[in-house]
Amino acid sequence: MKKNLIKILAAAGMAVLTMGALAGCGNSTTETTTAGTKAAETTAGTTQTTTAAAAATTAKVTADLKGSISMVGSTSMEKLATALSEVFMEKYPGVTVQAEFVGSGAGIEAVTNGAADIGNASRNLKDEEKSKGIVENIVAIDGIAVVTDPSNKVENLTKDQLIAIYNGTTTSWKDLGGADQPIVVIGRESGSGTRSAFEELLKLEDKCKYSNELDSTGAVMAKVASTPGSIGYVSLDVLDKTVKTLKLENTDPTPENIKAGSYFLSRPFVMATKGDISKQNDNVKALFDYIHSDEGKELVKSVGLIPAN
Fold first, then answer.
1. Where is the PBP domain (predicted)?
2. Mean pLDDT of 77-104
């Protein structure tokens, strides 16, 4: 009887110990869960605070920028400059971007004289321009397309054939496999960045025999589209179905071919400043920050150009 009582008491003791251990484990789990929840809440709070701080900083910078930016220059850069101006003014409502399209030479002269913040040029700067403190900021690469009227049967020109057309050696499309029809040679006016780049790339400076010299890219497109036997050169981003685009050395003027170096008529789009970008006012610096950003590079691509970097 006494032995049975001892066994009963021992079993009861073990039960009490087991219940205590389970209670302890339960408390430990609760404490761990509570601590983890608090840590997660702390992390989430920190993330929210950091995000809010970044948003506040961006909002402050946006609000702080006020005033205007003036761009003057290349008509070939009109599509890019217009798109850039519109997007930038949406991001910075306090800033007005004014753009004039009067030719590359006039743009460089304007920035040199302090009449503009930025001089847009669709060509590389000349040494004499750089000697005056003008800095060449390349923002995009453009191809120069050679176009004819839509009825022209010629599909491709070699570099030598193109040179012969523009220096006046070849005067009929018949000599190039086309119709027995005079070639009407159309180009841009003196001072045009497109003309300068075209003539420099073909080593035709002051050697071209133009039938018409027009003062804008749009005028060249319209003249070529409406003139039988005509040929002209335009910026890649304005091409449409009103004209026929020729291959050069059996290569189409596409961004891919230009980037690969297989299409020989290409040139830079320059946003020139007087002094380095770092020396410009905050509005101008912000504009360059934007065009060099990932979003800015996508904008450059959207108008048919190749980002510079």
1. 55-295
2. 96
| Separation CA 183–CA 152 (nearest Å) | 11
Work out the pLDDT band at 224, boundaries 50, 70, 90: very high
Tally of structural domains, the chain: 2
Q: What angle do CA 143, 147, 151 make, to 5 degrees?
A: 155
Please state the pTM of the whole predicted model: 0.67
Quote the DSSP letter at residue 231.
E
> From CA 65, how far away is CA 283, in angstroms rounded?
6
Q: Which two tokens stand for residue 200?
A: 């420099």
CA distance 63 to 234: 39
Could you list the residue range(s) of the whole structural domain that residue 191 is in?
66-309
Q: Residue 184 and residue 228: Cα distance in Å, rounded?
A: 8
Do 253 and 188 share a domain, yes or no? yes
Partners of 67 in beta bridges = 95
* Cα gap 83→74, rounded to integer Å: 14
257 Cα distance to chain centroid = 17
Closest by Cα among 270, 261, 245, 237 to 122: 270
Tokens representing 58?
């961006």
The answer to whether residues 195 and 147 belong to one domain is yes
Question: What gap in Å lies between CA 293 and CA 39, rounded to an integer?
Answer: 36
The CA radius of gyration of the chain, in Å to the nearest whole number, is 34
Q: What is d(CA 88, CA 82) in angstroms, rounded to the nearest whole number?
A: 10
Reported confidence tier of residue 57, pLDDT bands at 50, 70, 90: very low
- Whether residue 217 contacts residue 233, with contact meaning beta carbons closer than 8 Å, is answered with no
Q: Which two tokens stand for residue 265?
A: 């008529």
Measuring CA to CA, which residue among 269, 100, 255, 275 is closest to residue 197? 269
Instruction: Quote the DSSP letter at residue 122.
Output: S
Q: Which of 194, 171, 195, 169 is nearest to 184 (CA)?
A: 171
